[in-house]
Amino acid sequence: MTSAPSPPETLNLTRYCLESRALDPLTRNNPAFTFIDPESDDRSWTYAEVWNHVEAIAHGLLETGLNPGDRLLVRLPHSPEYAFTFFGATLAGLIPIPASPMLTEEESRFLLEDSGATAIIIPKSSQDMEFKGLTITPETLETFDHSQVGRATSDPLPNTNAEDPAFLIYTSGTTDRPKGVLHAHRTLHGRALMREGWEGFKNNDVTMHAGTLNWSYTLGVGLMDSWAAGAHAVLRGGSSDPAIWPTLIERLGVTIFVAVPTVFRQVLKYGNPETHDLSSLRHVLCAGEALSPALYEEWTERVGTEMYESLGMTEISTYISSGPNTPVRVGSPGRPQHGRRVAILEEESSSTKPLPAGAIGLLAVHRSDPGLMIGYWNRTDEQSAVFRGDWFVGGDRASIDQDGYVHFHGRADDVIKSFGYRLSPVEIESAIESHPSVAEAAVVGLAIDDQKTLVTACIVPTTPNSLSTTDLEAHATRNLAEYKRPHQYHFVEALPRTRNGKVQRKTILDQIRNNL
After folding, report:
1. Shortest CA distance to 326 belongs to which of 261, 405, 243, 412?
2. How many distinct structural domains can be found in the chain?
3. What integer pLDDT is reported at residue 6 of this predicted model?
């Protein structure tokens, strides 16, 4: 497979996504962004209006004394102001750090200290947080916004290059302290491969992402990719009511809906999609965690639209997927997108030789990929550990079949070692979730002592009291080899997840131990 084309030397993420359409008389008045607020009227902006907002904020941020290359922590509520601030900062050559407003003061302080941020943007109500640097509020940004629109071109914004840092994303840190993943402006060329191989965005699409803006999945797919394609991006504020999504899709004529599997599962459970006219949907996009075959089949049967899955990571975003040009193969997230160089490498050695089709090993991406991170922020030891020659090895276990489809076998650090066997929790979960009365399953290895680890399954039934351990044991006997079957089952109302929807296996283990 050939590598993706090299990006041009001069490149800016915000200009790439917005400027040409905002300045073109034929497209400047096209709808670019709508924000749904349950407590007030919808707010919408054209491409020209979005560009004016972010350009003004870029000038204003620099007038505070910030300089290109400075880090800027964005800790605002999910809102249009969050989006305009992120893109305005990037346009100014600053390095925004998206963060959740739900972070505690201690968590925010860690990000500030670890990143060496020069400034933080927070709501006025949070100004009592101690920070020695510059503190900016949305009210100040609003002042920038109105006073700076229409500035003379004699005061230009700085140029940025493809290899310059564009933004810094901190991983969720469910098992360790978060680490910063630094991305360059060239990530746009990796995202172009995503638009072609997974998203299929067109300039007449209305896209809607169910996530919040502190998450790179939402910033990237929900705004960057939608705007780069000339589409109309829709986001929603307020509480996460899963029943609202079919209503919004119908009302707004959404053509592509984007979410994590948990949201799709909740829509099917609470949203009554059959009672809505969802004929505007061309397809839906799913990422963030593994998509179970049962969920895929239920969605396509009840809603009637194709669901395209992708596999990715913070360090490179999504790079393996199904899509309009890659037929879905149930149980696989898809194939490497055109232009990606992907291989399977041995787990227990430092070999850089790709394994043959069907072999299970570590999923690797070539360091030439334009979407690959610049590196981990101030973590040189950890960065060295994830590169094996010219390959970035992120810790996902997988195999690639004869047709090029990738089959995910979980994280290397999630592998369960039980009674001499190395077991993939994802494989076991998939088998258990094929039971019609299982809504979700999470499998962990519960260490009893140094010599004994029990395969333990936490089960969310579709309805209360609809399952018994005997039912599950019989189902596992039919679908799993004896050494892969869970030794014990626990029934729960819901699985613990991060703010981004990923299952927290460590929390599950802690909960099980506390109940023993």
Report:
1. 405
2. 2
3. 55
Same structural domain, 103 and 249: yes
Boundary residue ending a domain (287, 321, 340)? 340
Shared domain for 153 and 28, answered yes or no, is yes
Condensed to tens digits (0 to 9), the pLDDT of residues 448-488 reads 876 788 999 999 998 888 899 999 999 999 988 888 899 99
The pLDDT of residue 4 is above 60: no
> Do 81 and 206 belong together in one domain?
yes
**Above 90 in pLDDT, residue 502?**
no
DSSP string, 388-416: ETTEEEEEEEEEE-TTS-EEEEEEGGG-E
State pTM to two decimals. 0.83
Any domain includes 352: no
Instruction: Report yes or no: 379 and 404 within 8 Å, Cβ to Cβ.
Output: no
Looking up tokens 């009210």 gives 139
SS (H, E, C) 82-130: HHHHHHHHHHCCCEEEECCCCCCHHHHHHHHHHHCCCEEECCHHHCCCC
pLDDT digits (tens, 9 = 90+) for 178-201: 889 999 999 999 999 999 999 999
- Measured CA to CA, the distance from residue 103 to residue 111 in angstroms comes to 10
Within-domain flag for 5: no
Is 345 contained in some domain?
A: no
In a domain, 313, yes or no: yes
Domain CATH code at residue 268:
3.40.50.12780
pLDDT of res. 2: 44
| Residue-range definition of the domain harbouring residue 424 | 415-515
* Number of residues assigned to the chain: 516
Give the end of a domain, one of 340, 355, 384: 340
Q: Cβ contacts of residue 472 below 8 Å, gap of 6+? A: 432, 435, 438, 457, 459, 486, 489
Q: Both 35 and 172 in a single domain? A: yes
Q: In this predicted model, which residue has the larger pLDDT, 357 or 513?
A: 357
- In which order are the strands placed within the sheet that holds 306-313? 43-46, 31-36, 232-236, 206-209, 256-259, 283-286, 306-313, 317-321, 335-336
Tokens representing 280 are: 């505007």
Q: Which one, of 3, 9, 324, lies nearest residue 195 by Cα?
A: 324
The tokens for 463 are 């309805």
User: What would the pLDDT profile of 411-422 be if each residue is shown by its tens digit?
Assistant: 777 878 787 677
Domain harbouring 500, CATH code: 3.30.300.30
